[in-house]
UniProtKB/TrEMBL annotation:
SUPFAM superfamilies: Metallo-dependent hydrolases. This is Amidohydrolase-related domain-containing protein. Pfam families: Amidohydro_2. Keywords: Lyase. GO terms for molecular function: carboxy-lyase activity; hydrolase activity. GO terms for biological process: secondary metabolic process. GO terms for cellular component: cytoplasm. The lineage of its organism: Bacteria, Bacillati, Actinomycetota, Actinomycetes, Mycobacteriales. Residues 22-292 form the Amidohydrolase-related domain.
Length: 295
């Protein structure tokens, strides 16, 4: 988009009479981790498969100001370990980040390891409001027996888990809807948020959402020109979207997106599903899920 993002988003909020936007899929990480993530995107590695320029490659404080200037009321600090003995360290960082960043939803993560139940329970005790799991990067099964007590804790407490489990942008050994279907069969009250609408298995994850009323989906990157070029959302599934208007959450993947932030919102407007659907997706659903101040 050529229009100024701040102006576009201000107009968008004004049209919908939205006090703000809630973005459930943003990344804030320890500096050394974020720079490694950016370096991976710079190589167009096997998990991306094509050039992926980082649009908002700025220092942490600049990125925070950018989000706030966009009218984002609340956001996340999604982190994810790719090896053992990393999850608890990341949780220490996100707890500190949340303490000094009150508009960030206190985020935590975990990895299949013997200590995971202890540090997940500790993170919840300290105020974690959302967990992030990345099946593709972590290269582990959500059905790993080491995670059974973790899923039980999360099911009992109702703390949502935003999980990247679809097979996009590149499939992994444990990605796809089948493991998640089995996970939900075992723990049907889990509050999962399926990242990227389950790209590219959109249809199958919508089917799961029909079966499990606690299942949410986030819009991250979906319907943008960038994603439509690689994993287009099936046109025969668009008629299903209004029925899930109360369980779809706006996400952007900020700062790791290869286009202006406004494109993520414009992509939703292009669906032409009406102002009520947009208000729910961009604000109301997350306010309700996380019990935020609606004003």
């Amino acid at each position: 988009m050529t229009i100024d993002t701040v102006t576009y988003l201000a107009d968008f909020r004004r049209k919908l009479e939205l006090p703000a936007i809630v973005d459930v899929h943003t990344h804030f990480m320890p500096d050394q981790v974020m720079r490694k993530v950016w370096a991976y995107f710079d190589t167009a590695g096997p998990l991306t498969g094509r050039p992926w320029p980082i649009t908002y490659r700025d220092d942490e404080q600049v990125r925070l100001k950018t989000l706030r200037d966009f009218g984002v009321q609340a956001f996340t600090s999604l982190v994810y370990p790719h090896k053992p003995n990393m999850g608890e360290w990341l949780n220490e960082w996100t707890a500190e980040f949340a303490a000094r960043t009150p508009d960030c939803l206190h985020t935590a993560t975990f990895y299949p390891e013997p200590d995971a139940p202890r540090y997940v329970a500790d993170a919840i005790e300290r105020g974690a409001r959302i967990f992030k799991v990345h099946i593709q990067v972590g290269a582990f099964s959500p059905l790993d027996p080491l995670l059974d007590p973790v899923w039980a804790i999360l099911a009992d407490t109702g703390v949502p888990v935003l999980i990247h489990c679809g097979s996009g942008p590149a499939p992994g050994e444990f990605t796809g809807p089948a493991p998640i279907a089995e996970l939900l069969r075992r723990f049907p009250t889990l509050r999962l948020i399926i990242a990227h609408m389950g790209t590219p298995e959109y249809r199958e994850f919508l089917d799961l959402a029909e079966r499990y009323p606690q299942l949410y989906l986030d819009t991250t990157m979906v319907w943008t020109d960038f994603s439509e070029a690689g994993a287009p959302f099936p046109t025969d599934q668009r008629d299903r979207l209004p029925a899930f208007g109360h369980r779809i959450l706006f996400g952007s993947d900020f700062p790791n997106i290869p286009y202006p932030y406004a494109e993520a919102v414009a992509a939703l407007e292009r669906l032409d599903l009406g102002p009520d659907w947009l208000r729910k997706v961009c604000h109301d659903n997350a306010v309700h899920l996380f019990d935020l101040d609606a004003s």
